[in-house]
Write a structure and sequence with these properties.
This protein is mainly α. The protein is 48% helix and 0% strand. The chain has a domain at 1-33. The N and C termini lie far apart (59 Å).
């Protein structure tokens, strides 16, 4: 039995116990507790990708913006200044 199968079995048992608790506490609703926001459960339950074909993921590629040489030089100079300040403080 794989880990995913064990988890699914535990989840089913929890759901069954919650329904039993609802019956015993005499609540009017037998619906299970609402899920917290987050990722939706997959239909297959495995949580793994189902396709490795690159054409399946052929969504429109985003165009990347370029950086000018002057902009890159400013970033390099700023980073070198940070490194120098750090080295000076470390001494």
């Amino acid at each position: 039995m794989s880990t995913n199968d064990i988890i699914l079995t535990i989840d089913a048992e929890i759901s069954r116990l919650q329904q039993a608790k609802a019956l015993l506490t005499d609540t009017s609703s037998l619906t299970p507790a609402k899920r917290k926001p987050g990722r939706l459960a997959t239909s297959s339950g495995s949580g793994k990708a189902t396709s490795f074909n690159p054409t399946d993921f052929d969504a429109k590629a985003r165009k990347r913006r370029g950086m000018s040489a002057a902009g890159r030089a400013r970033i390099v100079a700023a980073q070198k200044a940070r490194w120098a300040k750090f080295k000076k403080a470390a001494k």
